Each structure stands twice: as C-alpha cells, then as structure tokens.
Amino acid sequence: FFFFFFVFFFFFFFFVLLLFLTMVGRTGFILPGLNLGRSVVAGKNVTKGVVVYSSMRSAAGRSVWRPSEGSRSLSRTSMTATSVAVKDEKSLPPVKYLKDYSPPVYLVESVDLTFELDDQETVVKSKLVMVVNPKGTAGDRSIVLDGDKGLELVEDSLTVDGKVLRNSQFELTESSLTIFESALPELSESLTIECSVKSNPAANKALEGLYKSGGNFCTQCEAEGFRRITFYPDRPDVMSVFTTTIIADKEKYPVLLSNGNKVEEGDAEDGKHYAKYVDPHRKPSYLFALVAGDLVCSEDTFETMSGRTVDLKIFVRERDAEKTKHAMDSLKRSMRWDEEKYGREYDLDIFNIVAVDDFNMGAMENKSLNIFNSRFVLVSPDTATDADYNNVEGIIAHEYFHNWSGNRVTCRDWFQLSLKEGLTVFRDQSFSADMSSKGVKRITDVVRLRRAQFPEDSGPMAHPIRPESFIEINNFYTQTVYQKGAEVIRMLHTILGPKGFRKGTDLYFERHDGQAVTCEDWVQALQDANPEIDLAQFRRWYSQIGTPVVSCSTVYNENESTLTLNLGQSNPQPGSEEIGEPLLIPIRMGLLDSTGGALSYRFKLFKLRDGEDVSNFSSECLQVSQSPSILATELSTRTRC
Questions:
Q1: Is 399 a catalytic residue?
Q2: What is the pLDDT of residues 508-519, one digit of tens each?
Q3: Rounded distance, CA 212 to CA 199, Å?
Q4: If we measure between CA atoms, which residue out of 599, 603, 606, 605 comes closest to residue 620?
Q5: Could you tell me which residues come within 8 angstroms of residue 98 by beta carbon, excluding any fewer than 6 positions away?
Q6: What's the pTM?
Q7: What is the pLDDT of residues 410-469, one digit of tens each?
Q8: Catalytic pick from 208, 222, 399, 421?
Q9: Each residue of 52-61: b (16+ CB within 10 Å) or e?
Q10: SS3 string of 124-151?
C-alpha cells in the first residue's frame, strides 16, 4: 500500500510541476537558470517587451572566442553557469545612443593606486590628478566618477587638493560619486582627488572588477568592471598613466602582478610584502589588471627589432608548469610577426601571461599582463589535438596584437568596439595563415562565418558592426562585431593591396598613438595614406546591416574570344522590405579552362559599387575553344553569391 501510494504521489507531483512550468512559460515569466524553450539570442528574449539578462557575456563575452568543432569560435558564454532574470520594459536600463556621445569634462592625467589585499575587506587608495578637457562641453563643472554599490567609501577619505570634503559637498549613489562644483577650487585647470574604498573580493560573484577565486585575486575590467574597484571615470576615452602598488600576505600570495614595469618590491609589516608597477603608456581603465596568488612561472626572453631585451613570463599553477612551452613559442612568433608585417615593436621591458582555471572570461589583453583561462594556454602532446595547438597559438597572438590595435590606440566609446576587435581578429587570422596553411585557414574562417555570423545578420539580432544604440554593452561582443568586423578589414586590405594597407596602418598608429578614436578615424587614415582610392562608399559597411547578395552571369563570345562578366548586388535589410544602399565590394577573379587549369591571365580586382557592373576579359587571355570558368578567390565572404 505504501509503495503504490508513494508512486502515485510522485507522479501526481511531477504532473503538477509540469503544468506549472507550462503556465509559467506561456505567461512570460522565467525562473532563474531555467530555459523553457523560448528563443534567446545574444541575451534577448524574442518575446516582445521581455529582455533576458545573464551573468555571462553574450556570444563573445569580450575578446575571447575559442575552440568549437576544431575552430576558434566565440565561446565565453560556455565558461560560466547561466543566471537569468527577467525585467519588464519599465525597469530596463536606459538605451545609450551613439549620437548622444559627448567628450568627458575632465581627463585623468595620472592615477596612483594602492591595494591592501584582504579576502573579506580589501582597501584601495586612489589618487587621481585630473585636468579640464579642452574638448569638453561647457557647463556644470561637477566631477562625476563611476562606482559600484559594492564600494564602501572610507569616512573622511575623500579629498580635493588635500582638503577633506563634507557630506554636503558630494553625493554618493549606487552607481556614482559626484563632487559638486562648489567643492572645487575656482579657475583651477588641474586638481587632485584622493579617496579610500573598501570592498569584499570574495563576495564579488559578478567576476568583474577585483574578485577572489580559486585562491587567487584577479581582475576583469572590460567593459565596465573598473568601477567595481574604485571611483573613476570608467570610459575608454579617459586614458591615463597608471602606477599600482600591491600589498598582500607574502606566504599566501607570493606573486604580485599588475600593468607595466616592476619598479620596486620588498617586505612590509605583519608578514606582508609589496610590489610597485608603473605603466608609462596612457591607457583606459578597462585595460587595468591585477593578479595576486601562489603561482610559478616559465621564463624566456625576446629581442626586439631595435635590440631591446624583453622578459617573457607565463604564470601558472605548479602542476601546469610543463604545459606552457607552446604558448611561449607562440608568443615569440607573434611578437616577431607583428614587427615584420606591421612594424609594431613591443614597448615595455616585460610581458606577463597568467593562466588559471578560475578566469571565466577566456582571455583579456590587459596592457603587459594578459590573463587567460588555462584551457587557452596549456597544451600537452599527451592530451591535446592539433586544433588545440592551433587555437592556443591564435589566441595568444590575438591578445598580444591588441597591444597596438586596442591598447596603444583604443576605441573612443563602446560603439566603436569593432575598431579594435575587427582589426585584431583580421591580424590574428593572417598570422595563423602564415604559420600554417593559408587555404585551410581561410576555409575554416569562412565556414565559421557562414555558420554563425550569416544567421545573426539575417535575423532579429542583426546589427551593424558599429551599432547606433545599445542597452547593455556586454551584449554586443557578437559574431558581427568580431567576425564581420574582420571581413570588413579584409576587404580594405584587398582594395588597397598589401603595400597600401601597410601605409594606412602605419599612418593610423602614428597619428593616433595614445588616443581613443573612432571607426571613421581608422578609415580616414587609410584614405589619407592612399589618396588615389576613394573609400567614401566603403564606410557604409560600418552602419548598414545584412548580408549583400551578389549575382554573377557571363556571356562568352567565341568568335572574339571575349568574356563579358555581369555583376550585381542587392542588400535586403532583415526585418524590413527595404533594400539597403549599394556597398563597395571588392572581387578578385581569375579564369580556368575546361580542364581546371589556370589561363594565362593575372587575377583582376573588380570594385562592385552600384547595383550592376559589367566587365570584359580581353581576348589575349581567352585563346580557348569554349567558355572558361571563373575563379573568384576574393569574393568577399561577407556576401552571398
């Protein structure tokens, strides 16, 4: 009797639960961590008026993308458990628009940080030297610093030029610290703001800012994580020189790392020690990094093209020390390749990589201190496949290449994300192609593009590589921003040719070194370096959504041995009956005879600009008895043909 009663009760309870979940799914409520079958794409639920937020980053989660079916694919979201909450339209964060951008009123000339690390109560002391931005808008001179609600401002620690501020002279909210204009010195072009804050890294489950995991202190600041560390204008167009001092227990945290060159280290009181780092290159706050833990390192050196010696170190847990050789070799190959192909020399005395299991963002290009999840650094012949080795090489290269395309020259605002990511993806793809097989690498990239980015660009989540608006920037680390962005760079390389493209990148890095710039600045540098080529129409690629459809037909005149090529394009706009404007599409073509052999004809570059274009192949190359076949080697993979 009890057995049958138990079985009946179990199935009855199960039936009621299913009914409840079905009703929940129909009414639009979603329980945390539960996917009831609704279509969720890049953080958005397709149900009107409902947006799903996740603790993971969308699609790419920032800059890391990795192994999926033997290729490098954006996979940050696979690194952490899902935490889903639903907000109605009234409670959504405000939409941010590109058109509303305004320069900061103040810039930070220098920032001096001191970390007194503690598991439960870390104290961060900051000293900001701020100056009035000559490009800033006139008006209220109050200083607004971003800050997270988890920060506790130490009493009487907030000062302006050494004077402690009264509570009436500033306002503290859950997202910012505002110092009123009345508290600032009159007619001052420069001022110094100091404060101390307390936080609990062990309780930081967002894994942004400073957090404690797996016995190590670690940071992740892109896109807006630095505001969880201290009060600061946390935006990419505020670039500063950072000095960082770290104080921690010597036995528990023997390794102390941050950006820049280590200028000082030693013992402190109560069994602690310290290390001081100075990064002389201006950078935005999202590139700040700190690591403290019990790690060992593999060491090597690299001699730059100017003859400087750079110390290379990869920090891992002791058990992983034997698995870093391939990563170190990949780093050295990346550094040499960047010198040879782009003339970009590394600019500090040390380059550190940290690889730990607990870093959930995949990889991050922090200046001189790249942080990786260990799966993207550690490989062993006993367990790793060829794809694993290729992926490690490509990821190491990607993050290193950011030193120039992302760090020395960064994006003005997060709408320009593809400025650094698209260019760097193209650079790492080119590097991997040079290290292996160009053909195989290109096929791999195109397969991934067609499988993942084409659907994104034809569905409800279609967006330009430079979006006009967003609610949450973490939702825009997408296949479009990364992969389509890289293909747009590849088309520029095709149009300008290797020499013209190199002239353009040289001018871009020279003109904008130490600046936060836009996609327009990038294209303009290429244009100015190659004035004979008009890139005005090409700029549409940055603002137009969708995948162009290219049509191609041929007419062969056997008597005159002339092939007429008719090319056309249409640009359907997803979710609309409208047709987009014509794009500048480079197409390189050659000819094959009936046996598959190449005809004696040099590859020709066509620039499809309008809806239709007609081109003729001359009779000199068509001495064949039948119509030749067309080999399109550089028909942009951002098009369907």
A1: yes
A2: 999 999 999 999
A3: 11
A4: 599
A5: 413, 415, 466, 467, 468, 469
A6: 0.86
A7: 999 999 999 999 999 999 999 999 999 999 999 999 999 999 999 999 999 999 999 999
A8: 399
A9: bbbbbbbbbb
A10: EEEEEEEEECCCCCCCCCCEEEECCCCC
